[in-house]
Amino acid sequence: MKLFFRYITVIVLLLSLSSCSNPYNEEIYKQNNLKSVSESIGIDITGCSIGQYIENHAAFGDGTTFVKALITDTESVEIISGFWKPLPLSESLSEFAYGTEERAAFSCDGKQLFSFVENGYYYFYDNHSESTDPYDDTDLLNRYSVNFEMAIFDSDTNILYYCKFDT
Q: Which of these ranges, 33-37, 102-106, 145-149, has the smallest mean pLDDT?
């Protein structure tokens, strides 16, 4: 009987110790998410200097991913300038990124994320189910929910701003 209780005690101790370890590795999750961003925008940002990273998607997929990265490799800059649209942003994307008198800019915890970019390029992809053209942002602000990806590259500073927004 004593042997049985010893086995039970050992098993309980092992189970309680294993529950203290955290199987979630934030750095691995971040790198996997940066790979996903890279695939979306066609530029590898996994090796870039990341100035800001926000990930707050909930269990059902709603939330925001925001990345601010310094692009130093010339190949990426060439890809951006060859395939993305030149600034300025369209009216609805500008309203989202920078705000207007009537509408606040996109923010996280009360802080505006996008800095104003005068010279550069942008990328937009609408993931909304009602979208008929994923590269057209015309109806972006006329829906009850938004699901899109947007990136702005500042060619003066080589800073890339990326946002994936799901509601």
A: 102-106
